[in-house]
Amino acid sequence: MSHSQVDSHLFIILGGTGDLTGRKLLPALYHLARQDLVDGRFAVLGVGRKRELDDAAFRGWAREELHAARVRDDGLEAWCDERLHYFGTGGDGSGRYPELAARIEEIERLHGLAGNRLFYLALPPGAFASTIRGLGEAGLHHSKGWTRLVIEKPFGRDLASARELNELAHAYFSESQLYRIDHYLGKETVQNLLVFRFANAMFESLWNRDRVANVQITVAESLGVEDRAGYYDRAGALRDMVQNHLTQLLSLIGMEVPIAFESDAVRYEKVKLLRSISPVAPEDVVFGQYGAGQIDGQQVPGYLSEPRVADQSRTETFVALRLKIDTWRWQGVPFYIRTGKRLPRRVTQIAVTFRQPPVCLFESFGGCEMRPNVLMLTLQPDEGFALCIDVKVPGEPFRLETLPLHFQYREAFGSIPDAYETLLLDVLSGDQTLFVHADETEAAWQLYTPLMDQTVELHSYPAGSWGPAAADDLARRDGFHWHAPIRVDTRHHLTPD
Ligand code: BG6
Questions:
Q1: Residue 302 CA to ligand 1 centre (angstroms)
Q2: Is 152 helix (H, G, I), strand (E, B) or coil?
Q3: Within 13 A of 353's CA, how many CA atoms are on the CB side?
Q4: Do β-strands 212-220 and 458-462 pair in parallel, antiparallel, or remain unpaired?
Q5: Of 116, 257, 355, 439, which sits with the fewest C-beta atoms within 10 Å of its C-beta?
Q6: Which of 153, 182, 219, 221 to mutate to test the pocket of ligand 1 (most atoms within 8 A of CB)?
Q7: Distance 341 CA to ligand 1 centre (A)
């Protein structure tokens, strides 16, 4: 996470003409190059199935993608022409790895590169294993410089397949060469959770079962499955979001203080936290699937009417869970997490609710309504935090109102870099802190695999709602309720979203 200039290298993208490459990877690489963070000598090799494409056609495609991602400046044309290359595998891509190896060496000679290579698997998860094997068998797991392999999520479908994939990867690559990506860890606001907790002694001293009543993590999306049903219908929200993004947020909120801010120490604490979570009981899980409804006044179809969703699909598009962490710090404090597609709006918010004052001192003045303090950490889109505290409304005797002490990222710092930029720079610099270790991915699957082996009731919820009513019961059973996401308005008051 701290970078000097990174070494000269060849950035090889397997899945080189895919959606992720066009929308995220090329714009991030271009921005990094423009900031002069990367040594002048580097090149990008897109590897795709289309044999009919050549360097020129790939560059043309890349230019269009960069334009669509609103990258527009004078250097773009030249960057594409000078830096981008293409290699078409044809068919299913297997069997052409020796030719790929030869092409890599040719490009390295052309650009005078030192042999450092980064392979990025921007591929559907089903292609990870054969690609890793292909690279390994062709001897591409090492070179005369460094070789690093970046693997997108989801890493496996369950514990057994994640283990198999780890074993296969370790047959060729060492763990220090592997970068399992979870783009949530590249978000500034997610990294700020570490700073918030470990650079502010005041909060850390409150961060425990004596002070905290419950923790809620909401990752809501208003989008539906879009054109990704081919993948999503086989994955569902538990595999697509909970096992990775939400579990990462949970780890950062719940983990102990690492002994140092370096990759092994941070990852060790995260794994420890995951291993201390009790197996999720069936009554602590709610699955939902969206039906037709309205979002922002627009009628939207239900999941079963989306293109390429299987008839009668039972795939969950919403998950809510109640988790128990069996540590000295968190014993007895429920952690509720929920995520879903087609919820009213896009918002990622963590609400830490503190315990109520033991006695209401102002009751004799009538209508004493004391609310617990809540810390709302908004990770996106209005990045910032609000600590909700009760204050006396001037005038009338002791009427209380909840107001926020708040901070907004954009007000303080302006724009925030894209997560992929941060993560790519980390891979290029050899910093694994923000990547998921083999043990971590297995510990996360361990938590949820038992749920995949049983039939969990699937509730329906209308698009534009906050999910099935059954999810409310998870919190209600403990005497709590889900906090409606909030926003701090221009008068510095809290408004429900
Ligand atoms: C991806 C999931 O990992 O994260 C998508 O596959 C989801 O289904 C996306 O929409 C959400 O990411 P973000 O950064 O928009 O919150």
A1: 19
A2: coil
A3: 19
A4: unpaired
A5: 257
A6: 221
A7: 10
- Binding site membership of 316 for ligand 1 (Cβ less than 6 Å): no
Question: 491 phi and psi, to 5 degrees?
Answer: -85, 10
Structure confidence by residue, pLDDT tens digits, 452-473: 888 889 999 999 999 999 999 9
CA distance 244 to 247: 5
DSSP class of 38: B
Binding site membership of 240 for ligand 1 (Cβ less than 6 Å)? yes
Question: Which has more confidence, 217 or 497?
Answer: 217
Element (H, E) at 10: strand 9-14
Query: Which tokens sit at 47?
Result: 């590897």
Q: Which atom of ligand 1 is nearest to the CA of 182?
A: 3
The encoded tokens of residue 473 equal: 């019961």
Residue 3: pLDDT above 60? no
Give catalytic residue positions.
245
From the list 28, 155, 16, the residue with the least C-alpha distance to 426 is 28
Ligand 1 atom at minimal distance to the Cα of residue 187:
14
Longest dimension (CA), the chain: 83
When pLDDT is cut at 50, 70 and 90, the band that residue 361 belongs to is confident
